[in-house]
């Protein structure tokens, strides 16, 4: 993300101390952001804005700082002020869209991404953002359309991320061969990008080609060992293949890395049931129900089967 920088002026005449202080605040804030100290950046951009309330660059940069701090509502407020002060400002609308995406307000995100591409018809990041928002809304054809536009206007060095996200859409559409093709193109560009192996692995898994899926999950784990999903998916492959101890090891690791997904606990509960450890199975089913109460009927069936 690109900060906007103003030229610092050295004012030498009497009575200019407030101007000098304010411009120095901007520079301190800029350097703090570049150094990863986002809270300090917010503090000094705020001090600068006190005396420069129409400086759109300061609002934009403070918005970026709030974005990094995951304070998305304050970021939106600053980006909107930046856009109001500078009408030709696609970057501000793009980041408003990103904030709404982070907040899961996907329609609002799309509205702002559209404003960004209205001002810059080749703004490929905004098309990419729209593709993701449409994907989250289940509007898969729209997602593909926007990923295509993102690919058209972007440089090839980011195309692997577009191929990965387009593959995710094809998986939802049960177009597994198309998803595999997208992942193959992405891996050809960036062979160490874990998410491509994960999505290709899922495609193979849905096609019941479990050994190929496991190989891809191995690579996903190799390149991103702290990513929980490949462990989970590899564990479910091992479960289907009847290798319950390998399944258990992978599901344990997935839960160690991320313990907020009910499906992880459901599937580990099923493995424990297969191994005859019904106490642990019941505990996992109850944990899954705690995380996702909508699974109640499904879990009742699992608990009944486990108690036989």
Name the descriptors.
308 residues, mainly alpha, Serine Threonine Protein Phosphatase 5, Tetratricopeptide repeat, 17 helices, 76% helix, elongated
Concise structural overview:
The protein is mainly alpha-helical. It is built from 17 helices and no strands.
Describe it.
The protein has 308 residues and is an all-alpha fold. The protein has a domain at 226-308: Tetratricopeptide repeat domain (Serine Threonine Protein Phosphatase 5, Tetratricopeptide repeat, Alpha Horseshoe), CATH 1.25.40.10. 76% of the residues lie in helices and 0% in strands. The protein has 17 helices and no strands. The chain is elongated. The N and C termini lie far apart (57 Å).
Number of strands: 0
Structural class, judged by helices and strands?
A: mainly alpha
- Fraction in beta strands: under 5%
Q: Helix coverage percent of residues?
A: over 70%
CATH superfamily of the domain at 226-308: Tetratricopeptide repeat domain
The number of helical segments is 17
Overall 3D form: elongated
Mean pLDDT: 92
Q: Give the distance, in angstroms, between the N- and C-terminal Cα atoms.
A: 57 Å
